[in-house]
User: Fold this.
Amino acid sequence: MQNSIFLPQLVQIVTSNFHFTINNLQLVINAVVPTDDSDEIAQILIKLIDVQKNLNVGGSGINFNWFVSKDKNVRSLPTFSRELCFNSQNRIQNEVFNQKDATFGYYSSKDILYTRLKLDVKPIIFRQTNESEEESALQFEFNFHKDYKEVEKSSSELIDLLHNYTSFRKETENIIARLS
Assistant:
């Protein structure tokens, strides 16, 4: 497992399909190939929870990140983010940030499938590995969060939540599809 890290307070396992990060506060699994729409990540987590029968957690989150790029030859990041995120009814955006160089994002949340979907949209500038030119996009961070009132039942509730992994992913895809 080349590129993996094993320390007392942190373990990061790098495989061709997933990156696992485990510390005292959380377990994070990221898909290396984000276009893979299987629920393999959820199935791995369910097996890990089954092994640890007395897992007690206070909360959990299923996260998806989408990046929507603009056509760099057509419009700037301020123009692109304004088209998708500016709200003229928002007094702060309209009266304070309504200028040519401003970029825009937003935060929204709602209840869905016994979780709280938290969507944070941010304009970002990034550089691809081994590339010198900067690129820009809007980052859509989806977090399906659940708090557990009875931590003794959290393992079974978390497994129930993971069975909805595909539904959560489809919800993010439906939201992103509305942009076109």
In short: Residues 165-177 form the longest helix (13 residues). The first strand starts at residue 5 and ends at 6. The chain is about 25% helix and 35% strand. Strands lie at 5-6, 10-14, 18-23, 27-31, 59-69, 106-112, 115-127, 134-147.
